[in-house]
Amino acid sequence: MRSTPEIEDLLRRDAPQVLGALVRRYGHFDAAEDAVQEALLAAAGQWPSAGVPGNPRGWLIRVASRRLTDALRGEEARRQREERAAALTPRDAFTASPPGERAPREDDTLSLLFLCCHPDLTPPAQIALTLRAVGGLTTAEIARAYLVPEATMAQRISRAKQKVRGVRFGRPERWEERLPSVLQTLYLIFNEGYTATSGAALQRRDLAGEAVRLTRTVHRLLPDDCEVAGLLALMLLTDARRDARSGPHGELIPLDEQDRGRWDKAAIEEGVALVTGALSRGRPGPYQLRAAIAAVHDEAPSPEATDWAEILGLYDVLVRLVPGPVERLNRAVAVAMVHGPHAGLTELEASAGELKGHRVDAVRGHLLERAGDPQAARAAYESAAAQTLSLPEQRYLMARAARLRD
């Protein structure tokens, strides 16, 4: 008999394909999701004692289909809906591998991701709906991850569902144009998990882990897409450092002070292999370039051995593709590491009008400290600390400022 954690992993892995199968057959996103949640609860209650069925995904679809058709009976025009459900549901569906059984399509998860990342939804709504429908997180879990009241998150998810009501399930026409939104949503989920924007914890490992899991799913479904491979590589290479990023009391440890022996070597090897393979197949995209930069960091045996010239070259290419504030800020750091802190400060100030937020002042403080201006550096660190909502970052920045007091 499987242990409870194994059952939970199995349920989380199968949940999006079960939901996708129901939405593909019946529509009714809201009702289908409710039915899937009931089936998951039933499985969590029965399987630990009765054992996991031979076809667990089929069991879940059969139970969820029954719950959904029961729910539809109570609605207007129930006879038509029952006839439709009966016509769409094969007799004895999803039992132990009868002849001609039609398993749920493997790309249902991808179709569900496309639905959750519909262009009519705002990025926060896309994230919330993806975590709820594809990730299998409860509304309460998502609310805790983003530090908002559960009622607020419930309303956000409900509004998102209303907006996608009636949208045809399946890969949209010109689906390649929608894929960047899917990848961006997964990237945002990962970033929030890897470095929480607010709260007492530096990281939310469950959120980062969920982003990696979902990106693995997309990579499995689209193995030849270089940007999907690049995003997965970026996540693995970045997440490989997570155990070394914080001290015993949750304090932030910057990259150049981390114990590299605590980095996950297996994740680094996998990430390097992914990005190397992707870069060899054609013109690199932004995720591949970010992953390549992460690989240079991860493969360096020490901070001093880091090839900053290569990193700067990669950022030069990246900012031409994505001239965003984060990319330009990171390039300023690379300029400083190659050409000195004054050159980095010049680069930073040249983009001062576009770069805002606590990370800009944090970088400014670091470069000013290296340039030998402790008073200005301290003011920059204090300014950065006042702007961040992350307590570990705030404590780290105030500690840097305190070291520079006369």
TrEMBL record:
Residues 113-163 form the RNA polymerase sigma factor 70 region 4 type domain. Keywords: Sigma factor, Transcription, Transcription regulation. Residues 72-105 are annotated as: Disordered. Residues 178-278 form the DUF6596 domain. InterPro entries: DUF6596, RNA_pol_sigma-70_dom, RNA_pol_sigma70_r2, RNA_pol_sigma70_r4_t2, RNA_pol_sigma_r2, RNA_pol_sigma_r3/r4-like, WH-like_DNA-bd_sf. Pfam families: DUF6596, Sigma70_r2, Sigma70_r4_2. Belongs to the sigma-70 factor family. ECF subfamily. It comes from Streptomyces africanus. Residues 11-75 form the RNA polymerase sigma-70 region domain. Residues 72-85 have a biased composition (Basic and acidic residues). SUPFAM superfamilies: Sigma2 domain of RNA polymerase sigma factors, Sigma3 and sigma4 domains of RNA polymerase sigma factors. This is RNA polymerase sigma factor (Sigma-70 family). The keyword Transcription applies.
